[in-house]
């Protein structure tokens, strides 16, 4: 499902030339975000600012029209960076309308939907004449992180359900979430990147070592991260099943990309996650009741 949105671009021009990102770079960033996250930019508003007029909304008629249309259509307003909305906390507090959902697409950070209540309550507390925009951003991002963590926890059961059904690649999980009617944290359509971000929140360091198909791309050197990866691989075996060495190797081959199943098999045994008979013919998942088998 494609959602409509309003794009707002702001370019600063002084006697010394352009300052900050230009119109083309902002448009490219917003277009890429819209395509990836399932938005259709219904209208684009471009504000070319010359001079040093204040950031307050009543000095910016083009911004006013963009806000009015977003409010009327009940669609998000998308901008390329925080400073596009306002460069100080007092002006930002005046711009943020509780009836409008703002999406700020940073060039370095993933896009985040602004929680107006959290951001505005911190922005207006800044001293007039001594704005503390950094503090306002810090509190807002903390609130956004809590929201993202809560959303990840809410879709985790569906992701585990998809994995249990055999959908292991990020693209297949994204398709499964779409068929179940789940939405991303920003209400858009699912993609492999969105699933990867969710798994990164749920799995911590593990996602750094997985490719887009959920396969191990390398074995980490650090002990804790290495243990996390090995536990991931051990989870591919059933606790109540015996496996031959060939079966273990085949499973390892399926779940890594660097073509060394024997290394991973030995690592699982050395880590105590898999056990084997003295002749090495039979393997099984380690549990507390295995002493009788040895």
Low-confidence stretches: 108-132
Average predicted confidence as pLDDT: 79
Helix and strand sequence: EEHEHEHHEEHHHHHEHHEE
Quickly give the CATH architecture of the largest domain: 3-Layer(aba) Sandwich
Q: What characteristic shape results from the CA principal axes? A: elongated
How many beta-strand elements?
9
Range of strand content: 5-15%
Radius of gyration equals: 25 Å
CATH structural fold name of the largest domain:
Rossmann fold
- Structural class, from secondary structure content? alpha/beta
CATH class of the largest domain: Alpha Beta
CATH superfamily of the largest domain: Resolvase, N-terminal catalytic domain
The separation of the N and C termini measures 56 Å
Looking at how many chains there are and whether they match, the oligomeric state comes to single chain
Number of helix segments?
Answer: 11
Tell me the major beta sheet.
Answer: 6 strands, mixed
Helix content: 40-55%
> How many domains, in number, for the residues?
3
């Amino acid at each position: 499902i494609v959602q409509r949105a309003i794009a707002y671009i702001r370019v600063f021009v002084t006697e010394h030339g352009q300052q900050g990102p230009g119109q083309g770079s902002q448009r490219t960033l917003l277009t890429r975000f819209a395509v990836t996250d399932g938005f259709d930019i219904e209208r684009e508003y471009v504000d070319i600012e010359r001079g040093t007029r204040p950031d307050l909304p009543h000095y910016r008629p083009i911004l006013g029209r963009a806000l009015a249309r977003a409010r009327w259509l009940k669609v998000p307003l998308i901008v390329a960076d925080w400073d596009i909305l306002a460069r100080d906390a007092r002006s930002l507090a005046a711009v943020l309308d509780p009836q409008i959902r703002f999406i700020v697409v940073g060039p370095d950070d993933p896009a985040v939907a602004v929680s107006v209540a959290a951001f505005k309550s911190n922005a207006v507390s800044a001293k007039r004449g001594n704005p503390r925009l950094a503090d306002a951003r810090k509190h807002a991002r903390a609130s956004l992180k809590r929201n993202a963590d809560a959303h990840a926890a809410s879709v985790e059961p569906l992701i585990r359900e998809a994995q249990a059904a055999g959908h292991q690649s990020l693209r297949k999980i994204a398709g499964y979430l779409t068929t179940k009617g789940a939405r991303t944290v920003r209400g858009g359509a699912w993609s492999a990147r969105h699933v990867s971000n969710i798994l990164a929140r749920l799995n911590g360091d593990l996602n750094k070592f997985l490719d887009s198909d959920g396969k191990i791309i390398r074995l980490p050197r650090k002990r804790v991260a290495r243990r996390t990866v090995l536990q991931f691989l051990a989870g591919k075996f059933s606790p109540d099943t015996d496996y031959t060495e060939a079966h273990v190797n085949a499973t390892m081959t399926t779940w890594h990309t660097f073509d060394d199943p024997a290394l991973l098999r030995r690592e699982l045994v050395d880590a105590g996650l898999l056990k084997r008979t003295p002749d090495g013919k039979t393997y099984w998942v380690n549990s507390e009741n295995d002493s009788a088998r040895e």
